[in-house]
Design a protein that fits this description.
The structure holds two protein chains of two kinds.
Chain A lengths: L2 H17 L4 E2 H10 L7 H13 L3 E6 L7 E6 L1 H26 L1 H5 L1
Antiparallel strand pairs in A: 1-3, 2-3
Chain B lengths: L9 H11 L5 H7 L3 H12 L3 H5 L2 H11 L13 H16 L3 H9 L4 H20 L4 E2 L2 E2 L5 H20 L6 H22 L26 E2 L5 E2 L2 E2 L17 E2 L6 E2 L2 E2 L5 H7 L56
Antiparallel strand pairs in B: 1-2, 3-4, 5-8, 6-7
The chains are: A alpha+beta, B mainly alpha.
Chain lengths: 111, 334
C-alpha cells in the first residue's frame, strides 16, 4: 500500500505535531517530518497543509527577515491548533488501534 | 520523477509554478507562493541544481500545493479566451525549448544583451521620429550630417535614456503599461527593418535614368553611321528627350554658345577606339560593316530634343564645340 495515500489523511496531524514544541518555517517543518520518518511526503504538500491550517486558524505565522536570501515565514501552533491536535490525536489513536486490531489479530476480534 | 531533469533555476521554477496557478486570484496565488522562493533557495543550495528531481516538475508541484491547500484541482481548468490558450501554448513550447542545452545557454546569456536592445530601441525611435516629423535626411540607419542633427541628437539621447530607464524597471505590473511596452517593442522592430532597408538617396546625378537590365554595365557608347564609320561627339537622348547619362564616369562637354555643359556626349573614351586598342583594353571596332540602303530605323526618333542646358531656338541637337568628324581627339573638359 502506498504510504502517500495514507499520509494524505493524517498530514494535518503530523504537521501540527511537529510544530507543537517549536515554531518553524516551511522547509524546517519538511525536515522535521523527514527526520521523524515521514519520507514520502512532498514538499508542496507540506506547504499546502501549512497554509490550510493557517487559514483554518490553527497556526499563527510571522515573518523573520533574513540577512542572506529571502525572508522566512515561521509558523507556530496556537490554542485552536492545540485543541485540534488533541482531538486529532485521539481520533488517530482510536483509529490506529482499530486498524491494528483488525490487521494483526483477526482471531481476537471475534472472541 | 521527471526524466528531463536539468539545471532549472529557482526563478524559472517559481515562474512555472506561478503560471500553473495562474487561474487563481492574484492575492491567493501570491499567498500560496509566499514561501516558495526561500524554499527553492534552500533546496537549491542543498542539492545543487536538482530542483526537479527533488520537487517534481513545477506543474506537479503546483498541483500538489493546490490539492493539499484544499483549493481543488483547478477552478478554471481551461481558461477561456485566445490569450489564455496562446499563453498555454507558449508555456508548453518554452518548456520544450528548455530541454535543449544550447537554448538554455542562450537564455542564460540573453539578459546581458538587454541593455543593448534598450539603447537600440531609443535610437531607432528617435531616428524614426526625426525622419518622419522633422524631415531629417537619413541614409539607412544613420542620419545625414547636416543641421537637423541639432534636433536629432538631443532627442536620441532623451529617448535612449527613457528606454533604458523603462527597461531597468523590469517587468511592469500594470497590464496596460506592459502592453504599451510590447507595442513599442514591436513598433521598434518594424521601424528598424524599414529604416535599415531605406535606400540611401544620392545627391548628385542620375535622376530620371534607370540603369537596370542589360545596360547596367554599360559605361560608354560608340556610335557608327550607316557607312560604318565611327561618330564622335554624339549626344544621346531617350524617347522623352531626356539626356542619357550613363554611370561610370563624369564627362562633360561645353556647349558652343557657352550656355552650359552636356553630360550625354559619347564616346566618352577620351581618345576614341584606337586609344583603347593600344592599351590592350577591350576595343570597339574601328569601323563596322555599312548598312544596306533603306530605312534602317523602324520608328522615328523624337522630332526634336530639348537641349540639356539653356533654351535653344533651334529644334536640332546642338553640336559640341569640337564635334568634327576628322578630329579624332576631342579634349574632354573635366
Amino acid at each position: 500500500m502506498d504510504t502517500t495515500q495514507l499520509l494524505k489523511g493524517v498530514l494535518d496531524l503530523a504537521v501540527l505535531a511537529v510544530v507543537r514544541d517549536a515554531d518553524g518555517y516551511g522547509y524546517d517543518i519538511v525536515r522535521r517530518l523527514r527526520a521523524a520518518g515521514i519520507t514520502d511526503v512532498g514538499d508542496a504538500s507540506v506547504y499546502g497543509t501549512l497554509r490550510r491550517l493557517y487559514q483554518a486558524g490553527c497556526l499563527s505565522s510571522y515573518v523573520v527577515p533574513s540577512d542572506e536570501g529571502p525572508h522566512r515565514k515561521y509558523y507556530g501552533i496556537n490554542d485552536s491548533g492545540r485543541a485540534q491536535l488533541d482531538t486529532s490525536t485521539k481520533t488517530w489513536r482510536a483509529f490506529a488501534r482499530t486498524m491494528g486490531d483488525l490487521v494483526s489479530a483477526p482471531g481476537e476480534a471475534v472472541a | 520523477m521527471n526524466a528531463t531533469t536539468h539545471g532549472i533555476s529557482p526563478q524559472q521554477y517559481l515562474d512555472r509554478v506561478r503560471a500553473a496557478l495562474s487561474d487563481l486570484p492574484a492575492d491567493e496565488r501570491e499567498e500560496l507562493l509566499e514561501d516558495l522562493p526561500a524554499h527553492l533557495a534552500d533546496v537549491e543550495s542543498e542539492l545543487d541544481g536538482a530542483l526537479e528531481q527533488r520537487l517534481g516538475s513545477p506543474e506537479e508541484y503546483a498541483a500538489e500545493l493546490r490539492q493539499s491547500a484544499g483549493i481543488g484541482p483547478s477552478r478554471k481548468r481551461v481558461p477561456v479566451g485566445l490569450t489564455a490558450r496562446a499563453n498555454r501554448r507558449i508555456a508548453a513550447f518554452s518548456a520544450e525549448l528548455d530541454d535543449i542545452p544550447l537554448w538554455r545557454r542562450f537564455r542564460a546569456f540573453a539578459p546581458q544583451l538587454l541593455p543593448g536592445w534598450w539603447v537600440l530601441r531609443g535610437y531607432v525611435l528617435a531616428l524614426a521620429a526625426c525622419s518622419i516629423f522633422g524631415g531629417l535626411d537619413i541614409s539607412g540607419l544613420t542620419p545625414k550630417l547636416n543641421g537637423d542633427l541639432l534636433l536629432f541628437i538631443p532627442l536620441a539621447v532623451a529617448l535612449i535614456w527613457a528606454s533604458v530607464w523603462i527597461g531597468q524597471r523590469g517587468r511592469e505590473s500594470n497590464p496596460w503599461r506592459r502592453r504599451g511596452i510590447y507595442g513599442i517593442n514591436i513598433l521598434t522592430v518594424i521601424l528598424f527593418f524599414s529604416l535599415a532597408s531605406h535606400q540611401p538617396s544620392y545627391g548628385v546625378g542620375y535622376s530620371g535614368s534607370e540603369y537596370a537590365g542589360p545596360l547596367a554595365s554599360v559605361t560608354d557608347v560608340y556610335a557608327y553611321d550607316s557607312e560604318g564609320k565611327p561618330l564622335r561627339g554624339v549626344q544621346l537622348f531617350d524617347q522623352y528627350g531626356n539626356p542619357i547619362v550613363l554611370p561610370g564616369g563624369y564627362y562633360v562637354r561645353d556647349y558652343a554658345d557657352g550656355t552650359g555643359q552636356a553630360e550625354n556626349v559619347y564616346p566618352r573614351g577620351p581618345h576614341g577606339p584606337t586609344y583603347r586598342d593600344e592599351h590592350g583594353l577591350p576595343s570597339p571596332p574601328a569601323t563596322v560593316a555599312p548598312l544596306a540602303p533603306g530605312d534602317a530605323i523602324p520608328g522615328d526618333p523624337p522630332a526634336s530634343v530639348t537641349p540639356p542646358a539653356g533654351a535653344s531656338p533651334s529644334p536640332s541637337v546642338r553640336p559640341t564645340p569640337s564635334a568634327s568628324p576628322s578630329t579624332p581627339t576631342p579634349a574632354p573638359s573635366r
